[in-house]
Amino acid sequence: MSSLEPASQAMHVAPEETLAEYKTLSVPAVIALILGLLSPIAWIGPVLWIVPGAGIALAVLALRSIARRPASLTGRKTAIVGLALSLLFGSATLSRAASRTWWLRSEARQVAAQWIDLLATDQPARAHRWTLPPEKRPVDDDSLWTFYQTTADAQESLREFVAQRPIRYLLAHGDQVQVRFWMAEDPGPAHDGADLVRLYYAVTDERAEGKQSFFLRLVMRREVGVADPGAWTMSEVRGGVNPFESDSSQ
What pTM did the predictor assign? Predict the structure, then answer.
């Protein structure tokens, strides 16, 4: 009888081993791993953030399916690796985007503050040059007035600039009113890919009875691939706006 016991035990073990060999690899786990490996492409732009997002979703789906059907599904380690990669590159992408947004707003505010100060100190030509593209912008030195005196197009553009109501107001009263930063928005990139930042300022005239205020909106544009504050352009100036309402024209 003892000589038959090993064979009997083998007969009981073999079916379990055979079943184990036929476990199905979870398809969502495999796709999650592939998406995890592809997740670094999310750095290219927001549209591709869907890659690590989908990788995380599929990895979680695979882990749940494997937990419910451990006897027929395998691929838990594959799903975990895919999940880890998607989380790593997804979180890094979001952190990078957040830090870049903060940096763009900070630099745009610095340029805008200098621009407002130029108007407050009655320097319209120096303020106007920031409305010109960087490649067409005259040098800010003693030759600046010569540029405007000898260039017909520049003279006309300067006249139109100072004729704008908020510009005219700041030139006349900028040193007597309070201009406070209110908020910043990112309306998204321009059609040519340039960075845009929309800044709102509260302009308050404390000389008037009961204080009179209005909001000033500045749209700052930054050329692509130029790491220089001089790459910013004052693309729009508008007064009397409501920062709490969206502008369909933008």
Answer: 0.70
